[in-house]
Amino acid sequence: MDAAAVLGSDFGYVVLVIVSSIFMSWWVGYQVVKAREKFNVQYPKMYGDDDRFNCYQRAHQNTLEVYPIYLILQVMSGLYAPKLSAVCGLIFVLGRIVYAIGYQSGDPKKRLRGSFAYFGILGMLVCSIMFGLNLLQIVK
User: Fold this and answer.
1) What integer pLDDT is reported at residue 18 of this predicted model?
2) DSSP state of 105
3) Please, what is the angle between helix 11-39 and helix 82-104, to 10°?
4) Measured at the alpha carbon of residue 87, what is the angle toward residues 18 and 15, in degrees to the nearest 5?
5) Which whole-number Å values give the CA distances from 79 to 7, 13, 40, 68, in the listed order?
6) Residue 106, by phi and psi: left (phi above 0), alpha (psi -120 to 50) or beta?
7) pLDDT at 6 (0 to 100)
8) DSSP code of 140?
9) Model pLDDT for residues 28-62, shown as the tens digit of each residue
10) Which of 76, 84, 91, 103 has its CA 20 to 30 A from that of 125?
11) Helices (H) and strands (E) in the chain, counts
12) For residues 122 and 74, what is the distance between their CA atoms, to the nearest angstrom?
């Protein structure tokens, strides 16, 4: 069976944004690996005595905390409106990068510069709700 025939060829945009999110997640995680060396925080310690390292760790940890929500919304919204969903997903991915860079600066308040990621989440949430209502034939 041809996946494009079932999902529509535009769903390919959603797939590519999901792949980009994997690279974003790996990048944020790699920043923690490098910070462990820089601030001499040995495994298995989760946090160090230096708050600068802890900022790297929290940026990564928070990304992992929101990632499952993002993935579910990306797929569901992509089934409803793949191009819009892909744009929203890209906003999320870029926002998380800005979030991590801000947090890793050592000034935790700078993480808020990446708050625009939640506009992407909100867009995907609305599309997911519309998808559910459409399946229930409440909205066409």
Assistant:
1) 98
2) T
3) 10
4) 25
5) 7, 11, 45, 17
6) left
7) 82
8) -
9) 999 999 999 999 999 999 999 989 999 999 999 99
10) 103
11) 5, 0
12) 11
- pLDDT for 55-69, tens place per residue? 999 999 999 999 999
Joined tokens for residue 28: 């944020």
Residues 6+ apart with CB under 8 A from 25: 63, 64, 67
State the greatest distance between any 2 C-alpha atoms of the chain, in Å, as a whole number: 57
- pLDDT score, position 3: 72
Q: Which distant-in-sequence residues (6+ apart) come within 8 Å of 78 by Cβ?
A: 11, 13, 14, 85, 86, 89
Query: In this predicted model, what pLDDT tens digit does every residue of 96-125 receive, in sequence order?
Result: 999 999 999 989 999 999 999 999 999 999
Report yes or no: 106 and 128 within 8 Å, Cβ to Cβ.
no
